[in-house]
Amino acid sequence: MKILILADPASIHTIRWANSLNDFGNEIIICGFIREIPKNYNKNILIESVTTSSIFNVRKDGSLAKIVYLKILPKIKKILNTFHPDILHSHYASSYGLIGALSNFHPFIISVWGSDVFNFPNRSLIHRKIFKYNLSKSDKILSTSNFMAKEIEKYSQKQVEVTPFGVDLNKFKPSVTRSLFKDGDIVIGTIKSLEDKYGVDILIRCFKNVKDKYPGLSLKLLIVGTGSKENKLKELVESLGINNDTIFTGFIDHKEIHEYHNMLDISLFLSNESFGVSVIEASACEKPVIVSNIGGLPEVVEDNVTGIVVEPKNIEQITQAIEKLIFNRELRIWLGKNGRERVEKLYNWENNVKVMDKIYKKVFENFRTNSGRGNGI
Asked: Are 99 and 6 in contact, with CB atoms under 8 Å apart?
């Protein structure tokens, strides 16, 4: 099939979907707001920049850019008329969703990612109407989690299909890697962007509590990632006196992330997320996880079976969960193996792509049958 994807070309999520769908034999073209074309795509995937000079002067979530999007609509329609796709698929229901909706092309699919449904419609009545309009124009709405699908029901009566964003089990698996730590170290940490919403400061404070309580243990803290709060988090580590036991890696290419998952003994994810790809990556590497009981994280972790679910920002409870795993290696191993089995069952990336491919074919066939014609504007 020929698929035209409206999405951020620089996003690792876009790259993974496009490459994998292309590997399944689909012809892919991607249109998005970008200055520089990424180099991680399959060679036969075409990427079109549809940006204007003003598009980068608005907020990242596109909340102030709707009138600007009208300027690039003619270019989108020209690409549609040239490429003649079987499916138009917008990833992100507010910005790229609006462009897809205004193009009036069918069949049209929208994938909701998170902030587009949890934040955008709540900005104003106009934002809410735009969001509802975008969904109303779609022939199929997709969500990566049941948690997010429930939220979408506030704005549309259409059935939402869940398409998890899984992991490559051949890459994310338990393996021996060249570690930054010594044998005997118990490594606690996280792999997330260093932003307020991901609760890395809470992790640091909990680590400090455990370190002070058990000074005889060789406990280490690994923080993988970068972000606007990196310097503040480093200052917090210094103020707590745990510099010598903490490593900040900075930016790590996604191709190497699995190696850092395998350096950890206990992985923590204390944020409010719509899904939780990093949690699944950790579980695929057979790491026990501790996650906050909020958002989509409890959906990907079975409490006391694949990990431990704690109340958000409850430092005492999080500290106790860390202690429980520190002193029970057998439990860590058991939770990790259960986590791997759960990922194999629900979040195998190859199976997820097969599901998406089947959705494309079904949506196209339904549209052709109901409309009595092929595709088009």
From this structure: yes
| Alpha carbons 340 and 327: distance in angstroms, whole number | 22
* Shared-domain flag, residues 284 and 325: yes
| Residue 191 resides in a domain | yes
DSSP string, 182-212: -TT-EEEEEES--SGGGTHHHHHHHHHHHHH
Question: Do 76 and 103 meet the contact criterion of CB atoms below 8 Å apart?
Answer: yes
Are 206 and 335 members of one domain? yes
User: Domain residues for 88?
Assistant: 2-166+349-371
Phi first, then psi: what are they for 362, rounded to 5°? -70, -45
Partners of 342 in the β-ladder: none
* Residue where the block lists tokens 């106009």: 126
Q: Are residues 65 and 150 in the same domain?
A: yes
Closest by CA position to 81, among listed 51, 105, 100, 45: 105
Q: Name the burial class of residue 315, with classes exposed (0-12), middle (13-18) and buried (19+) by CB atoms within 10 angstroms of its CB.
A: middle
CA-based R_g, the chain, Å: 22
In a domain, 376, yes or no: no
- Spatial strand order in the sheet of 2-6: 46-49, 27-32, 2-6, 87-91, 108-112, 140-143, 160-162
pLDDT in tens, 230-283: 999 999 999 999 999 999 999 999 899 999 999 999 999 998 887 889 999 999
367 close to 139: Cβ distance less than 8 angstroms: yes
Q: Where are the beta strands (DSSP E) in 44-151?
A: 46-49, 87-91, 108-112, 140-143
Percentages helix, strand, coil for the chain, rounded to the nearest 5? 45, 20, 35
H or E stretch covering 246: strand 246-248
Q: What is the pLDDT of residue 60?
A: 46
Q: What is the pLDDT of residue 376?
A: 64
* Stretches in the chain below the pLDDT threshold 50: 56-64
- Please tell me whether residues 147 and 262 are part of one structural domain: no
Distance, in Å, from the CA atom of 76 to the CA atom of 102, rounded to the nearest integer, reads 10
Q: Are residues 365 and 242 in the same domain?
A: no
∠ CA 20-302-347, nearest 5°, is 10
pLDDT digits (tens, 9 = 90+) for 218-234: 999 999 999 999 999 99
